[in-house]
Amino acid sequence: MLTLSSVHHVYLATGSTDLRKSIDGLAAIVQEGFGLNPFSSCLFVFCNRECNKIKILHWEHNGFWLFYRRLERGTFQWPNESVGTATITSRELRWLLDGLSLSQRQAHPIVTADSVV
């Protein structure tokens, strides 16, 4: 099950990725293409060209998780910048998975409270 509480960072592979790749192929992209450690407690998120499928690679304890989501209708609001990575928050990842854009103008701002009134 995908829990975001233990995740340190969320990395998006901007642009499109060939989702025929499985765990080893995606881990190789993370390590060799992006210069990141696929064994870190981060999520690495990939999207196909049509923006209707996502794969998420995550290392946990002694093995990889590979999450896959396919939309029956609609598309993900995926950033189409040049090939590389973008770092987002787990909150922004939830927006993407819900079909929203990363620049939510209607979302409540994050509040850091110091004390209870």
What key attributes describe this structure?
117 residues, alpha+beta, five-stranded mixed sheet, globular
Describe the structure in brief.
With 117 residues, the chain is of the alpha+beta class. It is built from two helices and five strands, in the order E-H-E-E-E-E-H. The mean pLDDT is 87.
Structure description:
The chain has two helices and five strands, in the order E-H-E-E-E-E-H. The protein has 117 residues and is an alpha+beta fold. The chain has one domain. A hairpin with a 2-residue loop joins strand 3 and strand 4. The model has no long low-confidence stretch (mean pLDDT 87).
The number of distinct helices, counting runs of at least 4 residues, comes to 2
Number of domains: 1
The succession of helices and strands, N to C, reads EHEEEEH
Instruction: Calculate the mean pLDDT score and round it.
Output: 87
Rg over C-alpha atoms, rounded to the nearest angstrom: 15 Å
Q: What is the spatial order of strands in the main beta sheet?
A: 4-3-2-1-5
What fraction of the residues are assigned to beta strands by DSSP? 25-35%
Fraction of residues in helix: 10-25%
User: Which descriptor suits the 3D outline?
Assistant: globular
Structural class: alpha+beta
Q: Terminal Cα separation, in Å?
A: 36 Å
Q: Spans of 5+ residues with little confidence (pLDDT < 50)? A: none
The description of the largest β-sheet is: 5 strands, mixed
Tally of extended strands? 5
